[in-house]
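Hi all, long-time lurker, first post. I run a small reading group and we've been trying to get comfortable going from sequence to structure in the token notation. Rather than ask abstract questions, I figured I'd post a concrete chain and ask someone more experienced to write out its structure so we can walk through it together at our next meeting. Sequence below, copied exactly:
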Amino acid sequence: ELYFKNLSKQKQKEVMEKNGSHHKLRVCVATCNRADYSKLAPIMFGIKAEPQFFELDVVVLGSHLIDDYGNTYRMIEQDDFDIHTRLHTIVRGEDEAAMVESVGLALVKLPDVLNRLKPDIMIVHGDRFDALALATSAALMNIRILHIEGGEVSGTIDDSIRHAITKLAHYHVCCTRSAEQHLIAMCEDHDRILLAGCPSYDKLLSAKNKDYMSIIRVWLGEDVKPRDYIVALQHPVTTDIKHSIKMFELTLDALISFNKRTLVLFPNVDAGDKEMVRVMRKKGIEHHPNFRAVKHVPFEQFIQLVAHAGCMIGNSSCGVREVGAFGTPVINLGTRQTGRETGENVLHVRDADTQDKILHALQLQFGKQYPCSKIYGDGNAVPRILKFLKSINLEEPLQKKFCFPPVKDNISQDIDHILETQSALAVDLGGTNLRVAIVSMKGEIVKKYTQLNPKTYEDRLELILKMCVEAASEAVNVNCRILGVGISTGGRVNPREGVVLHSTKLIQEWSCVDLRTPISDALHLPVWVDNDGNCAALAERKFGHGKGVENFVTLITGTGIGGGIVHQHELIHGSSFCAAELGHIVVSLDGPECLCGSQGCIEAYASGIALQREAKKLHDADLLLVEGMSMKEEEPVSAAHLIQAARLGNTRAGGILRTAGTALGLGVVNILHTMNPSLVVLSGVLAGHYVSAVRDVVQRQALSSAKAVDVVVSNLADPALLGAASLVLDYTTRRTY
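-- Answer (accepted) --
Happy to help. Here is the structure in token form:
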């Protein structure tokens, strides 16, 4: 739970102290229709169950109080909630003006109610016009608002209303990760957003196994079997009423032709709803033997009906949200739910312009069973929401704050801005992965792409070109001006010609390869190529510990051992570009064999491959695993297992690591006596495991004049990419390379 990770226990304690130990949070829950009550009811039950923390006031308005829609306020009373206030706010009419007048009527009546109740917080759900009136009234009367299901995306005017309520609300409870990200993008305070899931899922996920046959018989008849009926629920689309009425006619025609028992629910109170009811009556749906037309079904029973239906059809949000929890097939018609996250059980018929198209969708979907989806919740939303409510500090300023992103100054004539956005394309050719990144002058990795490194020369070069072209195109969108391409690769490299002379065994078919020419021709940019160890040293010189240091050495500890030497601020390549092959410094005449063919190299002791080799030996002798360790049967033995065993007290594993650290330390001593640097930077995944041993060996074995050297671990997150970028950035900004 992202919210509760950020919220410490200490803060909760302070909130309780500020609010007073006996203060109860007075919560007003306002419900407008049967749909929002299904989401609010679980929260209301939770609040009612904790009277020591909360006082609950219930306000009922909207279609709850209309006989044509089933007088659904009665189910609130049946749930044993005391209704504090009933507000008749619906202005009857068949056009958009009636909705506007209903909002106005609610705005006239709500202030008196809120003045009497004086709630600490009002809970508002969703995206209905009634909810907009509630949020507007509460905001103008300085009442805190908790909005349920903000940040979601759908079709019609509902989107605009939902987002308008978001801007009025002080706190937000959202159902999905995408909704949370939308709220953050809308500049809402992340600390006031709770990703809880949909409250209705708290009931849904525990409901399916209850007795359902009696419910099916009550609503659809004695002869109906599970998975052999349809539930239809369609509402008018207020931004295109005429088209939605036509689509409803086609839907009913298709259902009549499909000839299955169908439960049809009356539409919501919206502009166009009366016309939809007239269409039903014109087609004789209320008297048709295959149809049951009803104004309302209690939510608990409705859950059972959709859970065991052969299909649900219409444009209700229930179809794309709640029904997924049961894997029931859904046909979503039109644009009303465009943008909603859905499970694989939903088939969209966006432009249902013919009866045959809808009929074909019914034939495809009816009777299927899909995997259950929990996109919108895991059944634990209410406990999270109650905890969130308890954490609200009423002493905090009521005025909400928006978290706007930084706004750039006018940069049309600003030369500093041009310098800040100068960037390089950095390419890292590893034994496993091929990576390309856009790196800014300040060392920020703006964008990174990763693909598996192909095994053949042709495929590898083709992929490099493809990834570089893609990154160069994206650089325009992120306001970066690419100055050139820097490539870091294993093996021996001629940086003057941009040619890989001889590669490591980890990168196959990669010798005598001209990288500069094809990439420069394709991108029309200058290209620099160098060994990965040299690139790591350049990264330290520009962005890391080596910045401003005249003489230093970088050692890379990873799959192999490599490095780079900077002397008098310049990188040393050597006469045949073989300088700084530090992994092949010999520290023992009769040591283990190295991949280079020699014996006793640092790499033969301290590389990841060497540690893996020793780990396999221990494992084969059944001496690797100790208490607290476990390995799957087919899991390959790795250096990580050896390190874990050493940490857990395996003396043999610990001895191998000490030997490896000593070998690396002896290599560093040789470097000190040869180059006399003032700094040694250990880089790579194993650096942290070796640094203490290296320092100890230096103090024991180095000449007294060399012992003052600093041995540190690199703080760069990605030295290979940063070093490749510095090939470009140092040269193009007239730094020495």
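A couple of things your group might point at:
The longest strand covers residues 481-489.
The first helix runs from residue 2 to 6.
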